């Protein structure tokens, strides 16, 4: 398995980055927050998980080993694939997910697009004990990117939220509420976290 990737960032998308490793550009799917914390032209280190299918090899990247471990753990539940696992980490993060599983907080889990009441109950039932073995997440490995002049972060964050399953209207409202709360020099990832928090209320 490819456990990590270190190299210069060649491209940054909303939920993916391309990392140049030994002359090869590796496409790595990430959470929007991890992608937002990568800067083109700078070196980054991502913990990774390789998902092998009959017709594809897909690499997923994370800011730390704890995120990767949670990504792999939630996929042990029937019906949870890599896309949903990534959405779960995009909305809550490993610490919050572990807390929700341990406390049986199905309401918090249903705030994730694609997770209904029955799915949340199954996740809690199957993962309550497993997550106890996971360690606390380390500090992010990727380089943070400040929001650019003007407010291009609004479109970035809105597109990321729509990509996670919320409607354009919900995303737009969450972006406006995040803009009212964040300091002027906040990073794109900070705006995204605030918007996600608003959508979970």
From TrEMBL:
It comes from Phycicoccus endophyticus. Homotetramer. Forms an RuvA(8)-RuvB(12)-Holliday junction (HJ) complex. HJ DNA is sandwiched between 2 RuvA tetramers; dsDNA enters through RuvA and exits via RuvB. An RuvB hexamer assembles on each DNA strand where it exits the tetramer. Each RuvB hexamer is contacted by two RuvA subunits (via domain III) on 2 adjacent RuvB subunits; this complex drives branch migration. In the full resolvosome a probable DNA-RuvA(4)-RuvB(12)-RuvC(2) complex forms which resolves the HJ. Has three domains with a flexible linker between the domains II and III and assumes an 'L' shape. Domain III is highly mobile and contacts RuvB. Belongs to the RuvA family. Residues 72-91, 107-126 form the Helix-hairpin-helix DNA-binding motif class domain. The gene is ruvA. Transmembrane segments: none annotated. GO terms for biological process: DNA recombination; DNA repair. The RuvA-RuvB-RuvC complex processes Holliday junction (HJ) DNA during genetic recombination and DNA repair, while the RuvA-RuvB complex plays an important role in the rescue of blocked DNA replication forks via replication fork reversal (RFR). RuvA specifically binds to HJ cruciform DNA, conferring on it an open structure. The RuvB hexamer acts as an ATP-dependent pump, pulling dsDNA into and through the RuvAB complex. HJ branch migration allows RuvC to scan DNA until it finds its consensus sequence, where it cleaves and resolves the cruciform DNA. GO terms for cellular component: cytoplasm; Holliday junction helicase complex; Holliday junction resolvase complex. It is found in: Cytoplasm. HAMAP family: DNA_HJ_migration_RuvA (MF_00031). Residues 149-201 are annotated as: Domain III. GO terms for molecular function: ATP binding; four-way junction DNA binding; four-way junction helicase activity. InterPro entries: DNA_helicase_Holl-junc_RuvA_I, Hlx-hairpin-Hlx_DNA-bd_motif, NA-bd_OB-fold, RuvA, RuvA_2-like, RuvA_C, RuvA_C_sf. Keywords: Cytoplasm, DNA damage, DNA recombination, DNA repair, DNA-binding. CDD domains: UBA_RuvA_C. NCBIfam families: ruvA. This is Holliday junction branch migration complex subunit RuvA. The keyword DNA-binding applies.
């Amino acid at each position: 398995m490819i456990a990590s990737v270190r190299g210069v960032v060649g491209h940054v998308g909303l939920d993916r980055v391309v990392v140049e490793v030994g002359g090869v550009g590796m496409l790595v799917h990430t959470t929007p927050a991890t992608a937002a914390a990568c800067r083109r032209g700078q070196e980054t280190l991502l913990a990774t998980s390789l998902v092998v299918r009959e017709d594809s090899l897909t690499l997923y990247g994370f800011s730390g080993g704890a995120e990767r471990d949670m990504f792999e753990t939630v996929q042990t539940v029937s019906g949870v694939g890599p896309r949903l696992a990534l959405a779960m980490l995009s909305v809550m993060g490993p610490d919050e997910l572990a807390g929700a599983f341990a406390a049986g907080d199905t309401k918090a889990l249903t705030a994730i697009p694609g997770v209904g009441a029955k799915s949340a109950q199954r996740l809690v039932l199957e993962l309550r004990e497993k997550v106890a073995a996971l360690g606390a997440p380390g500090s992010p490995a990727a380089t943070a990117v400040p929001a650019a002049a003007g407010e291009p972060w609004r479109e970035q964050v809105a597109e990321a939220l729509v990509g996670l399953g919320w409607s354009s209207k919900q995303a737009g409202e969450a972006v406006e509420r995040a803009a009212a709360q964040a300091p002027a020099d906040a990073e794109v990832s900070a705006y995204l976290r605030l918007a996600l928090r608003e959508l979970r209320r």
